[in-house]
Design a protein that fits this description.
Pfam families: TPR_8. This is TPR repeat-containing protein. By secondary structure, this protein is mainly alpha-helical. The protein is built from 19 helices and no strands.
């Protein structure tokens, strides 16, 4: 017997459509995490956060996934946002932050957050873990440990100063600080990448390229080496070598926002504006507002692609946050 259109319409009216909500995506994300399928877990949890951006539980779980894959900075950024948006109500965030800082070697920050957690949640789920973490940092806390904490604080001071000079392209100020850092903290590999970058733009391209190639020989997958060498070769018109490194970057999608920015800026600086623009669009502005390079190169990219209104908006916002950017006279003068 053939059904009429009216019958079919009646059935359709009685069907309740399935519309996934945040809890559905969150559950799928947790299931993937438990199976150690971290890429899948991140995709589901992103959907959960998009569906319910004010639910701190989703962001906390995402931070745990980031911690598991070693993206400690990205994890901490989420946890800080949760604490800020909930007025410190999610006290577990303090232990998770302490754990991440310990992995990063920032022991003062690890200690501080573990102590805050115990003060706020004496009977919390992570009480034993926090106490154990503090015990580990208290073992033999005499001269050697005090020196280590002092060194850590000194490194952070250097890093903050170098970051400011590098973002402002003040190479003559960054270079001597980086030379001191190489001598004081030889175990910190990232310092050498900043050093070669400052060296190149200080007028020593051959030395910079040679040093970066030596690092790449030891670490063939180094993102920082590939971004630096792509820029170095592009600036020196060695296009065959440039293409080798830029091709590598096209297949790289980092998790950490600062690394994502590094790839986007490299694409923009070397004229690959269409791909740079798509990378910039996916960046979290709140996590990068202290980066002058974000506003500068995103604005330049938008202008080069014929989107002047967006370029101007980005440039004006960047100049408010970073007045030195105004010295560049706008994206149209690049």
């Amino acid at each position: 017997m053939q059904q009429s259109n009216n019958d079919i319409q009646g059935y359709k009216e009685n069907v309740i459509p399935f519309i996934p909500d945040g809890d559905f995506y969150f559950t799928k994300g947790v299931e993937a995490f438990q199976k150690r399928k971290f890429d899948t877990a991140i995709k589901w949890l992103r959907k959960a956060i998009e569906a319910a951006p004010d639910n701190p539980l989703y962001q906390c779980q995402m931070s745990i996934v980031y911690t598991e894959i070693g993206a400690y900075h990205a994890a901490n950024q989420l946890l800080d946002e949760v604490l800020q948006s909930t007025n410190d109500q999610y006290t577990d965030c303090y232990y998770l932050l302490a754990n991440n800082y310990a992995h990063l070697g920032l022991l003062n920050d690890a200690r501080k957050h573990a102590e805050i957690y115990l003060n706020k949640a004496a009977d919390g789920d992570f009480r034993e873990d926090a106490e154990h973490l503090l015990d580990l940092m208290n073992i033999d806390e005499e001269a050697d440990d005090e020196w280590e904490f002092d060194e850590e604080d000194e490194l952070l001071v250097y890093q903050e100063a170098v970051f400011h000079h590098m973002e402002s392209e003040e190479w003559e100020k960054a270079l001597p600080l980086l030379e001191e850092m190489l001598a004081l903290f030889p175990e910190h590999k990232l310092i050498k990448h900043d050093y070669t970058h400052a060296l190149f733009f200080s007028g020593y391209p051959d030395d910079a390229i040679g040093m970066e190639l030596d690092v790449l020989a030891e670490q063939p997958d180094s993102l920082h080496s590939h971004t630096n060498l792509a820029i170095f070769y592009y600036e020196t018109d060695r296009m065959q070598e440039y293409k080798q490194h830029i091709k590598t970057l096209l297949n790289v999608y980092p998790i950490h926002e600062q690394q994502k920015l590094r790839v986007a800026v490299t694409l923009a600086r070397t004229g690959v504006y269409d791909l740079a623009y798509s990378r910039f669009q996916k960046l979290g502005k709140q996590q990068l507002k202290n980066h002058l390079s974000y506003y500068k190169w995103y604005s330049i990219t938008a202008y080069q692609l014929g989107i002047p209104s967006k370029a101007l908006s980005l440039w004006e916002e960047g100049c408010k946050k970073h007045p030195v950017l105004a010295d560049d006279e706008g994206p149209w003068n690049v």
